[in-house]
Amino acid sequence: MPADYVPILILVVFAVGMSAIAIVLSALLGPRKSTPTKLAPYESGMVPFGDARLRFSIKFYAVAILFILFDVEAIFLYPWAVMYGKLSPLGKLLGLAEVVAFLAILFVGYFYAWRKGALEWD
Questions:
Q1: Smallest Cα–Cα separation from 70: which of 118, 121, 120?
Q2: Is the pTM of this model over 0.85?
Q3: Chain mean pLDDT for the chain
Q4: DSSP 3
Q5: What pLDDT band is residue 61 in, cutting at 50, 70 and 90?
Q6: 70 Cβ contact partners less than 8 Å away, ≥ 6 residues apart
Q7: CA within 13 Å, CB half, 26
Q8: Which of 37, 75, 88, 118 has the greatest number of C-beta atoms within 10 Å?
Q9: 10 Å Cβ neighbour count for 112?
């Protein structure tokens, strides 16, 4: 049984070796001209000003997490939509009932977050 993992071991050794060779060669052969212009920070076409270590409000992270959560849950509707035409009439009815239940749970969570003020920017 350990002999079955030899090809995987060879692949891992090869990948690590090629990565190491690429890093070493770029460090040895790459250009090293450091100028003040290259060392200056640059962000979105504007010269930065002020301190880069600003604190963000927890509301920013809460809204971002809620967006990802609801976005991922919406992705679960795609397999149902793709297979809907191939289902039998009873399967279509049961599938529709499951999607309605899924969306009901999703909207309960959305309205709960809304009522708790998680989507407010104040």
A1: 118
A2: no
A3: 85
A4: G
A5: confident
A6: 106, 109, 110
A7: 6
A8: 118
A9: 10
